Fold this sequence. Notes:
Elements: H1 2-21, H2 41-46, H3 59-74, H4 77-92, H5 95-110, H6 113-127, H7 131-143, H8 146-173, H9 176-190
Amino acid sequence: MKMLNKNKFLAVAVGFLLLLITLPGTGAAQESGVPWSQLNPDEQKVLKPFAQRWDQLPPNKQLRLKKGAKRWGQLSPQQRQNMQRRMKTWKQMTPEQRQQVRKKFNQFSKLPPEERQQLRRSRKWFNNLPPDKKRRLQKRWQNMPPEKRKQFLKNQQHRRQSLKKNFRKKMQNATPQQRRQFKRRMQNRRTP
């Protein structure tokens, strides 16, 4: 009984994973799909919930599912656990909340790579804060009127641009030795 629930949960998690990692328009749909027999045993195990209706699925969906199963197989146990947690959260959302998440995801995916990277760094910074500080910041943000939020974000963007500009100027005027020292410091910061 416990194993059955685990398999169902895994199947739901895989479905969510596939939903999140596939974007409309990724890869062209092929005329013929992927026969079940061409899936490797690991992919068949992950996609088992689709086995009975595999032949009825559109070819492009079969390809997306196959790609998602391959990615699922490459995840570490910790990453799979995180994905299962996210799936649980996803299942508890209302359709409106899910639509909002999809909208935000599409907006994020359309951002330039530099901005996406900056958002990831900010999120990592936030996630590393102590819980009480996180709560205070969240409360402060939620209580902020929309126009103040916009102004805050605009100021942050201006500040980042200004810092970049100043940094470029400094690097142009730096000696090769100063550049090497800076590079070493940055590498040391990134190493855990």
